[in-house]
Each structure stands twice: as C-alpha cells, then as structure tokens.
Design goal:
The chain has about 260 residues and is of the alpha+beta class. The protein is built from six helices and 13 strands. The chain is globular and about 55 Å long. The relative contact order is 0.13.
C-alpha cells in the first residue's frame, strides 16, 4: 500500500478497503508494511503515536484478525511507552488478542533520514509462535544485519518477516538481502514494503515478495500496485532439506582474523 502521509484515519480506511477486496477467506496470516499508519515521514512519527493500552491501531488490527479468523502481523506503527517512542511491530492471534510487540532494533538515519531522532531502538529480537511456526520479526533496516536472522534461526525459526518502507533508489540491496536472509538460514521469508510516493522525488520501491528457503521468489507484487500477494507455505520440504543440508552444523564458534 501507499500510505497517506501523516493521516492515520485515511490509512486505516485504506487497509480496511484493501483487506475486504483482496484477502482470501481461508488466509492464516495477514502481514502489513512498516509505518503504514503514517507513511515514511519520521517528522510525523510522534504525532501519530499510540499507547499500547489504548491504541486505535491495535483495535483496528484486532477487528481484522477476528473478521478473517487470521493471525495479523501489523507491519509497524509508532508507540509511546514510558515517555519513549518506538517503531513497533504487533502480532495478534485469530481472536484479535495481542500476543507480541517487536520494537525495531536498528534505526535508519542516513542520507537525510533521521529515524533515530524521533524513536528509540528496541533492545532484543522477538520470535513468536504462530500455531507451531516459529516466526522471527524484523522491520526494514534490520535486514542489513544478518546477525539478527542467524540468532532467530539458531532459536528454531521457520519463517522470517521483514516489514518495510524501502526506498526505490535501493533496488539491489532489497533484491539481494531478502533472498540472502532466506538462503543462508534455509528459512521462508516474507518481505513486504510500501509502494508509491513518499514526497517530491522520493518513492517506496513497491516490491513485496514471499521467498522460499532456497531463495526462490514464489509470489510477489511490483510496480507500485496496491493489493495483496499470497502463497501457501509448505514447511515439511523445508525441514527435509535442512536435514540433508546441515549447514548450521558447520558454523565455527569463533572466527579469528589474522592479518598478514
């Protein structure tokens, strides 16, 4: 989706419309992009913030979960907790109950962006169990840090999710890293990003994709279109593949660098 900058009400209405139009009735998991409530506009973050105990955003996501009888990974929205602001990814179960909150661990503050000026980085990874599928949560810039994905994989992750608002001028990193995180950990990856214009000549890349444990893109949506992309994930072949190609067993405890 292309968020309306700084307008939570319009963005909630847009997600509701797209969900009604495009989400299949037998969907198990619905995933949204980063900061969909406000758009990639850090200067608007604090003004859009919710407190988790009284959150319009969480109330809406809860209604979506109940309507479709689906788990919801609600992209991210800005939360205010104890005087601090976070870029927060919520997870809700089929009954609409909040079961996890992940706070973005790495904040993007380069090339004129200043996310770190407005929000605080989270302190740890969060993996959630979705009916037996252990799912590691990340947000946008987190994907540049393979360490967090390796930690998830060592903890038993079956699925990675990266919710993003990724810039159109960085297509190669998006293409490479979404595949790499899946391949190097033999894990499914859901990587989705906002589409459309941010402001002036800044655009989101508008390329959301579902990638299997071998790095194959099994479903994707491109070209700034709004809507849903879906796929059925079969985990048994992944487990069999891992049992035959046990690459994690070959990781050394440490890698000492000798300079010559």
């Amino acid at each position: 989706m292309c968020s309306v900058t700084g307008n939570k009400k319009d963005n909630i209405e847009k997600v509701n419309y797209l969900a009604q139009r495009d989400i299949k009735s037998d969907t198990d998991l619905i995933v949204l992009p980063e900061v969909w409530t406000v758009g990639w506009a850090p200067e608007y973050f604090r003004g859009s913030a919710d407190e988790p105990g009284s959150s319009e955003t969480l109330e809406f996501l809860s209604s979506v979960a109940r309507k479709f009888n689906s788990f919801v990974i609600g992209g991210s929205f800005i939360t205010k907790e104890g005087g601090l602001y976070y870029n927060t990814c919520p997870v809700l179960n089929r009954s609409g109950e909040l079961i996890a909150l992940y706070r973005k661990n790495h904040l993007f503050s380069y090339y004129g962006c200043d996310e770190g000026k407005y929000v605080t980085a989270g302190e740890c990874p969060i993996m959630v169990d979705i009916e037996g599928i252990k799912t590691g949560l990340t947000v946008c810039y987190d994907i540049r840090f393979p360490e967090i994905y390796r930690v998830y994989r060592k903890a038993g992750a079956d699925l990675f999710v990266n919710c993003a608002a990724w810039g159109r001028n960085k297509p190669v990193p998006w293409e490479c890293m979404t595949r790499s995180r899946a391949v190097e950990n033999q894990t499914y990856m859901i990587a989705l990003t906002q589409s459309g214009q941010i402001k002036d000549d800044e655009w989101n890349i508008g390329h959301s994709r579902i990638i299997d444990y071998k790095g194959e893109s099994i479903a994707e949506i491109k070209d700034q279109r709004e809507g849903a992309v879906s796929a059925v994930l079969d985990f048994e072949p992944m487990y069999e593949f891992r049992s035959k190609c046990t690459i994690l067993n070959d990781i050394k405890q440490s890698y000492e660098v000798k300079c010559v």
